[in-house]
């Protein structure tokens, strides 16, 4: 897709698949790289073949080793050679088209990737004579703010030795990276500064740049020792109660460069920095590899860098990668361009973020996305989009209701009939069924419980409390809040696990009643299980069936940033729905133990004794 064609999203509900766009930028040879004796400019190892002639949508980049005459070609989206391309040209063609989307609530990330000394900081920050993408983007944002009445703010932080530090508020504590249940990345503790003019911006950025860790190495006099991230946030004014506020974020990332320590001459702290930089860039390549291979687990948690980029690689942001290249470094350029070419295959699903999200909008977006993935035969990706870093990690009607699961019991004709009536016209009711049905294997029962007749009974059954604000407290919405597995609830064991017999009279046959009670029991057990995962020690977790040492560690790591709210959150660890189901089943089976033990357990008076 050409940059000009990034479709502008209509406000409110529009969404789009957007591939990570990848462009190459070759810096010129520096004066110290030109031999004084010959005073001839060396030949670049990088060239472009048939720019735009074979296909206007991509370019073929050729890398040629002058020593061995090795030769490799890679396809990228665009190419900016050393001769005639200024940062302004890159901005106009590649970054400018992303900016209007911010004003409609869409996030975007631009990141410069490449070996040390390849020109990443020069491209992103620029110089006084040639402003980089950061000031150019801010200038454009400010002029659009003037037209629209929106506000602009900036944050600037660095990831140094695997820790995030605020560069505008140096006394602040370390920044914590968190993700919410919709897969959005949040940085707890990061300050924001309002920006009203370019002079304010320049002053603030210069302050941050001074604080960023930079050092002289054998390969670059001004080598960045950290990944630097500028965040430009745009917020629309909120008019009255009904209007939803729109916020868009543009991340401009100047990554630290890959370093070959046989050549940098690094020692001591420089070597430590270098090790962390290389580790995080290795983690980035692992994420790109996993996304390309459609692996169920994408290792975003291997480094802070990949956590920050989580939303931009396989997430909900638009993303532009600028592969920066030194024309005299063949091996490094092969490394950079091969990773860049692989990144080009990654799709993001761009969703506008509104402070008051509408569930129906999410439903529409998810069904559009699934249809797209199915048309491409990408079933695994479809699963992933329902999981990691996804706006749909909490199930929505169309995703789960369509899955056919083996019923736990044969339901009665009455239950089936009720379930069949529950079609797409009754989205609200199906929302109940789906939320409830995430862990209820028998969808018929879930659907039947979701019908208006049964909502009130479920409400009495449920041990849950509503935590989210309720705008419309009709029966169905109340029930959604009370039985949804995606709400965060305090751990609680119900005093009366089963409802009094009177409350179940209208359930019809004894089988209906039994099915409903089993479902309620399951929801209680599922909540207890989630509470256990959130509070157990490492040793306790390992004791539980199906959880090994590695999984226990992943869970501890995950809950450190955001406690599990539902079993579906385990998808963030890369587990599939089936794996979560198996894990839970194993734990649940353990409750019942041997059949002889069960025989000794008396029936609760309130449950089956009056039948
Ligand atoms: N397009 C360009 N035109 C002129 N000089 C450039 C250009 N790009 C980079 N340079 C120069 O090349 C040197 C290295 O650039 P820069 O510091 O931006 O590299 P980097 O990729 O950020 O390196 P590191 O990863 O070590 O921080 C600097 O002296 C810079 O001024």
The CATH architecture of the largest domain would be 3-Layer(aba) Sandwich
CATH superfamily of the largest domain: Kinesin motor domain
Question: What kind of assembly state do the chains in view correspond to?
Answer: single chain
Instruction: Give a list of the ligands.
Output: adenosine-5'-triphosphate
Indicate the CATH topology of the largest domain.
Answer: Kinesin
Count of folded domains: 2
The total of helices stands at 22
Q: Roughly how many Å apart are the termini?
A: 65 Å
CATH class of the largest domain: Alpha Beta
Query: What share of residues is helical?
Result: 25-40%
What can be said about the biggest beta sheet? 9 strands, mixed
Keywords: ATP-binding, Microtubule, Motor protein, Nucleotide-binding
Family: Belongs to the TRAFAC class myosin-kinesin ATPase superfamily. Kinesin family. KIN-10 subfamily.
Binding site for ATP: 114-121
GO molecular function, one term: microtubule motor activity
Topology, pairings included?
Blueprint: E1 16-19, E2 21-26, E3 46-49, E4 59-64, E5 71-76, E6 78-80, H1 87-95, H2 99-102, E7 108-114, H3 120-124, H4 133-148, E8 151-160, E9 163-166, E10 176-179, E11 185-188, E12 193-194, H5 198-211, E13 214-215, E14 223-224, E15 227-235, E16 247-254, H6 261-264, H7 268-292, H8 304-308, E17 318-325, H9 330-343, E18 347-350, H10 359-375, H11 379-385, H12 397-401, H13 413-421, H14 427-437, H15 443-450, H16 452-461, H17 475-483, H18 510-535, H19 538-543, H20 549-561, H21 577-592, H22 595-599
Parallel strand pairs: 2-6, 2-17, 7-16, 7-17
Antiparallel strand pairs: 1-18, 3-4, 4-5, 8-9, 8-12, 8-15, 10-11, 13-14, 15-16
Bound molecules: adenosine-5'-triphosphate (ATP).
């Amino acid at each position: 897709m050409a940059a000009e064609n990034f479709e502008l999203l209509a406000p409110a509900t529009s969404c789009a698949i957007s591939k990570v766009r990848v462009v190459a930028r070759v810096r010129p040879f520096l004066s110290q790289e030109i031999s004084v004796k010959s005073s001839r400019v060396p030949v670049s190892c990088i060239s472009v073949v048939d720019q735009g002639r074979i296909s206007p949508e991509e370019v073929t980049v050729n890398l040629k080793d002058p020593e061995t005459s090795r030769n490799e070609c890679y396809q990228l989206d665009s190419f900016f050679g050393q001769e005639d391309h200024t940062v302004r040209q890159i901005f106009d063609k590649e970054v400018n088209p992303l900016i209007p989307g911010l004003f409609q609530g869409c996030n975007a990330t631009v990141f410069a990737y490449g070996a040390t000394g390849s020109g990443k900081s020069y491209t992103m920050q620029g110089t006084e004579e040639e402003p980089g993408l950061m000031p150019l983007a801010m200038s454009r944002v400010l002029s659009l703010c003037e037209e629209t009445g929106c506000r602009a703010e900036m944050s600037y932080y660095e990831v140094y030795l695997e820790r995030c530090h605020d560069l505008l508020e140096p006394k602040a504590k370390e920044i914590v990276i968190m993700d919410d249940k919709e897969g959005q990345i949040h940085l707890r503790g990061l300050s924001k500064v309002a920006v009203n003019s370019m002079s304010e911006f320049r002053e603030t950025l210069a302050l941050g740049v001074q604080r960023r860790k930079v050092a002289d190495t054998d390969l670059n006099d001004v080598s960045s020792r950290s990944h630097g991230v500028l965040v430009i946030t745009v917020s629309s004014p909120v008019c009255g109660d009904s209007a939803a506020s729109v916020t868009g974020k543009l991340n401009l990332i100047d990554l630290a460069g890959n370093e070959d320590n046989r050549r940098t001459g690094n020692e001591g702290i420089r070597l430590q920095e270098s090790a962390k930089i290389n580790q995080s860039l290795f983690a980035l390549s692992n994420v790109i590899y996993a996304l390309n291979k459609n692996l169920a687990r994408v290792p975003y948690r291997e480094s802070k860098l990949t956590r920050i980029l989580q939303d931009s690689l396989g997430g909900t942001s638009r993303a532009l990668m600028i592969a920066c290249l030194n024309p005299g470094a063949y091996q490094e350029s092969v490394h950079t361009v091969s990773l860049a070419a692989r990144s080009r295959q990654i799709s993001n699903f761009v969703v506008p973020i509104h402070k008051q999200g509408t569930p129906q909008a999410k439903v529409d977006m998810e069904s559009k996305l699934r249809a797209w993935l199915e048309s491409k035969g990408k079933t695994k990706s479809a699963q992933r989009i329902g999981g990691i870093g996804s706006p749909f990690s909490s199930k929505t009607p169309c995703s789960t209701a369509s899955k056919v699961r083996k019923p736990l019991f044969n339901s009665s004709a009455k239950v089936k009939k009720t379930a069949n009536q529950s079609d797409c016209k009754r989205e609200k009711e199906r929302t109940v069924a789906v939320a409830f049905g995430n862990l209820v294997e028998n969808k018929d029962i879930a659907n039947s419980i979701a019908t208006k007749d049964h909502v009130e009974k479920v409400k009495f059954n449920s041990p849950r409390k509503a935590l989210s604000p309720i705008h419309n407290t009709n029966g169905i919405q109340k029930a959604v809040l009370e039985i949804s597995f995606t709400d965060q609830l305090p751990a609680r064991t119900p005093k009366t696990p089963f409802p009094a017999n009177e409350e179940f009279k209208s359930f019809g046959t004894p089988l209906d009643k039994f099915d409903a009670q089993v479902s309620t029991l399951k929801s209680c057990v599922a909540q207890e299980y989630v509470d256990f995962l959130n509070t157990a020690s490492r040793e306790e977790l390992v004791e539980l069936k199906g959880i090994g040492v590695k999984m226990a560690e992943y869970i501890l790591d995950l809950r450190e940033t955001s406690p599990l709210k539902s079993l579906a959150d385990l998808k963030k660890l890369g587990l599939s729905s089936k794996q979560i189901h198996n894990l839970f089943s194993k734990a649940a089976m353990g409750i019942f133990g041997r059949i002889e033990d069960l025989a000794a357990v008396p029936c609760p008076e309130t449950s089956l004794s009056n039948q």
